[in-house]
Specification:
Largest interface: A-B, 33 and 29 residues
CATH topology of the largest domain in chain A: D-Maltodextrin-Binding Protein, domain 2
Strand content of chain A: 15-25%
Shape of chain A: elongated
Order of helices and strands of chain A: HHEHEHEEEEHEEHEEHH
Distance between the termini of chain B: 26 Å
Strand content of chain B: 5-15%
Radius of gyration of chain A: 22 Å
Number of strands of chain B: 5
Number of domains of chain B: 2
Shape of chain B: elongated
Oligomer: heterodimer
Chain lengths: 235, 315
């Protein structure tokens, strides 16, 4: 207890000086590695990306898709240009963890296995995967034993099986399938009717270097104010 | 008389006991609110996680107090001839063990965070439609975990002394000291905001150390109680004056040549016996009766005091 009392007097004086510091500067919170300041001064934003359709679609020198669009808008707001780096997710995350990248987009959700090693933004977009039927296709009361088209190489097939339906795998959706799984906004885009069978929830995030809190806050604030833009991009 | 007197508290302590129960119910409700509020604002800060775990652990003492309060008052019966008083000590032991183990786990976590150079990311929350830094929300949650706690602890402390309740005392002491926990955690959030990422690990280690220390102290006391250590004051620092009072009482009896007293605690109350070598054996029965009654008048906690006349004192 005595130790704690001593600690407290120390801590209270520290708190005092911290508030003093706060009053004197507008920069709170701060980045231990000054990422935000560096991006603003060097005018270069180093962004790692991987192929993660439909969120990140590699195409020529610059990736396309919702997340690259958002990143470009964020860079513009900071007065910086984007230096794009394509790579595998592991390498990019390792680079991000060591502050060799400023931002990583890979269609990441809040369930990313890297969430302890890096900083994840709060979800900038929450969505879910549903089953939809093609126009003109008549569906019974449920989808039991019916084939449902899913993108190959994803976990959607598993959720389709959980609904007692049969997944069929396609490189490109909807591929004319009578029933297909997709995000609500994808079903709308394909002209499919959403059956309301919810397969999986996803909360999409972006990743930044660990503990760079001014940087994280700047990105999150930007994403928060970009909600309208996100919805427009998905239309 | 083979079964101990069953009533736990004398009439004048019934009101404080009722008040203690009320305060502990209040504490449970309050701590639940703290745990929820803290959980909602919980980020990656290790110090914050430790503080949260501490608040969760804080539930053990009031819950074990309320649970045992239902048992300790049960009358003694042939199956449990000494009554149910020790239920309180068992509750105390359980809580202390939990405190120690979780404290050690948190200590390990803190060391790992510091050594591993883990940096807590604290981002944005939206409060009333306005985006703010989540650290401010954490600080607000931490203030809620400290200020009411301090007053709860202060209210409970004198009642714990009155009732001679060690669980209540430990709980009150923890509540009272909670402001230190909260302040340390607030400092670590501010430090993260200032870019001193290491402060988070350092603070979480300090916080966990204090949980471990608390757990160790309480566990020791609970084990000692169960091993029939001679009665101690509620704060556990000194020998209970009751033993000395009994010695004075027996010394004052002219028919007693020599004696030896053996006392133990059963939760709130005291059991014990005195072995007495009589100088004069006339009217022994009424003399023993009178001495026993005088002993009972010394302290309400003395519930079962046996005065045995022997030829030779036990070792």
């Amino acid at each position: 207890m005595k130790l704690f009392l001593l600690l407290n007097s120390l801590v209270l004086s520290l708190l005092g000086s911290a508030w003093g510091l706060l009053a004197g500067t507008a920069h709170f919170p701060k980045d231990p590695e000054d990422t935000l300041q560096r991006v603003q001064h060097s005018k270069v934003l180093r962004v790692g990306y991987t192929h993660a359709e439909p969120w990140v679609v590699p195409s020529g020198a610059e990736p396309q898709g919702i997340e690259p669009e958002l990143v470009r808008a964020f860079a513009k707001k900071l007065g910086a240009r984007v230096a794009w780096v394509a790579g595998t997710e592991q390498h990019l995350y390792q680079a991000l963890e060591e502050h060799e990248l400023d931002l990583l987009i890979a269609g990441t959700t809040d369930e990313s296995p890297w969430k302890e090693q890096v900083g994840l933004t709060r979800p900038y977009f929450e969505t879910a995967v549903y089953v939809g039927n093609a126009p003109g296709v008549v569906v019974g009361v449920d989808i039991k034993d019916q084939p449902v088209a899913v993108p190959i190489g994803t976990d959607i097939g598993h959720y389709v099986r959980e609904e007692d339906a049969v997944p069929t795998y396609h490189a490109q959706l909807p591929d004319g399938a009578p029933l297909a799984a997709g995000y609500a906004w994808q079903l709308r885009r394909w002209g499919y009717h959403n059956l309301g069978i919810r397969l999986k929830d996803e909360s999409h995030v972006m990743a930044v270097p660990p503990g760079e809190n001014a940087w994280l806050l700047a990105l999150e604030t930007f994403l928060y104010h970009s909600k309208a833009q996100v919805n427009q991009l998905l239309r | 008389m083979t079964e101990a007197k069953h009533q736990e508290f004398p009439a004048e302590l019934e009101a404080p006991f009722a008040r203690a129960k009320k305060l502990e119910w209040l504490t449970v409700a309050y701590l639940l609110s703290v745990v929820v509020v803290m959980y909602l604002s919980l980020g990656q800060s290790q110090a914050m996680k430790t503080a949260w775990a501490d608040d969760l652990l804080g539930l053990v003492a009031p819950v074990s107090f309320l649970l045992t309060a239902r048992f300790v008052r049960r009358p003694a019966n042939p199956e449990f001839p000494y009554g149910y008083h020790r239920a309180a000590t068992i509750g105390y032991l359980t809580g202390a063990a939990a405190l120690l183990v979780i404290g050690l786990l948190l200590l390990l976590d803190g060391v790992e965070a510091l050594v591993g150079g883990e940096r807590a990311s604290i981002g944005m929350v939206v409060l009333f439609g306005r985006p703010i830094w989540a650290g401010y929300l954490m600080i607000a949650a931490l203030l809620w975990s400290t200020v009411p706690s301090y007053f709860l602890g202060k209210a409970k402390l004198p009642i714990a002394e009155q009732l001679h309740d060690k669980v209540l005392f430990a709980d009150a002491d923890t509540n009272r000291a909670d402001w230190q926990m909260g302040t340390a955690t607030i400092i670590s959030i501010v430090a993260i905001g200032l870019g001193w990422w290491w402060a988070d690990g350092v603070m979480s280690i300090l916080l966990a150390s204090s949980i471990v220390l608390d757990g160790y102290k309480n566990l020791r006391q609970a084990v000692f109680d169960l091993m029939n250590q001679t009665p101690k004051t509620v704060s556990g620092q000194e020998n209970d004056p009751i033993v000395h009072k009994l010695q004075l009482l027996l010394k004052g009896l002219d028919w007693v040549r020599d004696f030896k007293i053996r006392m133990r605690e059963e939760g709130h109350i005291l059991y014990g016996e005195a072995f007495v070598i009589a100088r004069d054996t006339t009217d022994l029965l009424p003399r023993i009766q009178r001495a026993t009654n005088q002993a009972y008048d010394l302290d309400w906690r003395l519930k079962d005091f046996v005065l045995a006349v022997v030829d030779e004192l036990p070792e």
